[in-house]
Design brief:
Rossmann fold; 7-stranded mixed beta sheet; 11 helices
């Protein structure tokens, strides 16, 4: 079985309810397809009854596997009850199969399998109320779990969707270099080599919001109405904060799972841009505004054409020096032609040649060489000073 890859950029928390289902309270939840049941009609004592069956025991699944007669007979017997000729026709089902059905594609991002939890004497079952055909197609594709909409009689609480989304997908990303705090919920920092959670990083002024408040926010220029590129955006937290400061557009750039970090090849192969969109969605669910001003782009920063970047501010925290002296200077030279303001944060905790490239003196020299007037902020005993350059 394989995992369904959720596109966190396009995930939709709005559900398109079919006409036969009243719109009600719901949550988007990650669910195992093997745990789902379909309510299948059958005759019992000359009456039409419903029986719960696992998906791979349904006539729908038999049809996909090549046994056409079971599903055809089902439609003949119970066609009026299941919408035969409107949606559940042989022709429409064949189209889904032949077109290599894609669940929650961009144009159908609100077309969820809709379920409800039904309580029985011997326990509860997850029952599909719309989407049996699609669920059977997914099982046949070898997919283990997908996001589905679970309906409830009452609307869930204010942050119920936030909590569910966080629970379902946080651990899809092994590394959390930046700790996150949102609506009282936390994702702890965990990084190479042991990836153990480190709750102490919330307040050590070296990561996440504590670093932002300690040194970044107060040294940034006025961002109101400005466009910003965030190079090496990681989970996108600072992109989010910059929109809250009034930036009109923030574009974040970082790696996908195929890109190897040049000075640490042992970091996990994960899609950092998907992680950033996941975090952006968490903040949306918590009620943050103006987040549509943010976009993230998957790329190899080492191969990015910096000469084509046109923004009001170039922002990069602890990234550029990892590419070596020649590349560092080349980046500053290229952005100096189109971007009037630069904000860099560096790390003084490195050794060897990396320590030289990460030094404030070296980076200040490069910025001044290409026409920037530079201010620095270097708190005593603090390893993450910042530089701000302006033309």
């Amino acid at each position: 079985m394989k995992n369904f890859k959720v596109d966190h950029k396009n995930i939709n928390f709005q559900v398109n309810f079919p006409p036969h289902l009243p719109k009600t309270g719901y949550l988007i939840c990650k669910v195992s397809l093997k745990s789902l049941y379909a309510s299948i009609l059958h005759w019992k004592s000359s009456k039409i009854k419903k029986k719960l069956k696992k998906l791979d025991k349904t006539p729908h699944y038999e049809f996909i596997k090549g046994n056409k007669s079971a599903y055809e007979s089902y439609l003949i017997k119970f066609g009026k009850k299941v919408g035969y000729g409107i949606e559940h026709s042989i022709e429409n089902f064949n189209k889904l199969i032949m077109n290599n059905y894609l669940y929650l594609g961009r144009e159908s991002s609100s077309e969820y399998i809709i379920c409800q939890k039904r309580k029985k004497l011997l326990g509860s079952k997850n029952v599909i109320v719309d989407g049996v055909h699609r669920a059977c197609l997914l099982i046949n594709q070898g997919i283990e779990s997908v996001p589905a909409a679970f309906i409830f009689k009452k609307s869930p609480g204010k942050f119920a969707q936030l909590d569910q989304y966080l629970k379902d997908y946080k651990d899809d990303f092994l590394e959390w270099y930046t700790p996150i705090e949102i609506a009282g919920r936390r994702i702890n920092e965990r990084t190479y080599p042991d990836f153990k959670e480190r709750p102490d990083f919330f307040n050590n002024k070296e990561r996440g919001k504590s670093k932002w408040n300690f040194i970044i926010k107060k040294n940034l220029p006025n961002l109101k109405g400005k466009s910003v590129c965030d190079i090496g955006c990681n989970v996108g937290l600072y992109s989010i904060f910059m929109t809250q400061m009034g930036a009109k557009k923030v574009d974040g750039y970082d790696r996908g799972e195929k890109v190897i970090q040049p000075t640490n090849k042992n970091l996990p192969r994960q899609n950092v841009v998907q992680q950033a969109y996941f975090v952006k969605n968490l903040f949306k669910l918590a009620g943050y505004k103006n987040l549509d001003k943010i976009n993230y782009f998957e790329c190899d920063i080492n191969k990015l054409d910096f000469s084509k970047l046109k923004y009001d501010l170039f922002f990069s925290s602890c990234v550029l020096y990892h590419f070596g002296a020649g590349k560092f200077e080349d980046i500053i030279k290229k952005i100096s032609k189109n971007i009037p303001e630069v904000f860099l944060q560096t790390n003084l905790g490195h050794d060897g040649n990396l320590a030289k490239l990460a030094s404030v003196s070296y980076q200040k020299k490069m910025l001044e060489k290409y026409g920037y007037k530079v201010k620095t902020c270097m708190p005593k005993g603090y390893n993450y000073p910042v530089l701000y350059g302006i033309k």
